[in-house]
Design a protein that fits this description.
This protein has helices at 10-16, 30-33, 70-81, and strands at residues 6-8, 23-26, 37-38, 42-43, 61-65, 85-89, 100-101. The protein has 102 residues and is α/β, with parallel strands linked by helices. The protein has one domain: Rhodanese-like domain (Oxidized Rhodanese, domain 1, 3-Layer(aba) Sandwich). It holds the Pfam family Rhodanese.
Length: 102
């Protein structure tokens, strides 16, 4: 049985974005991120995660984000199984109240 995926709320991400040591990975599609991303987020569409592992460091922590939290949960599960430290942002960008960059 897989370990439970750690979660973080959008409010917690907004409060800790510039103080905690993690990278936000936005797994939404290109057309979705054109509507805005969390500042400093790295965009890797969900389907490209398996072939993008060389861009990630197992010594770092990642917070995964999508529109509603479902795709990022799946990406979190996959990355955790590969040995990465991850947290899923609950509710996704639908619940994000902070600033976005374009």
């Amino acid at each position: 049985m897989a370990d439970e995926i750690k979660e973080i709320t959008p409010e917690e991400v907004e409060e800790t974005l510039h103080t905690d040591n993690y990278t936000v990975i936005d797994v939404r599609e290109d057309e979705e991120v054109q509507q805005g991303m969390i500042e400093g987020a790295k965009h890797i569409p969900l389907q490209q995660i398996p072939e993008s592992l060389d861009q990630l460091d197992k010594n770092e922590e990642y917070v995964l984000v999508c529109r509603s939290g479902r795709r990022s949960y799946n990406a979190s599960q996959y990355l955790q199984e590969q040995g990465y430290k991850v947290r899923n942002m609950t509710g996704g960008m639908l619940n994000w109240k902070g600033e976005v960059t374009f």
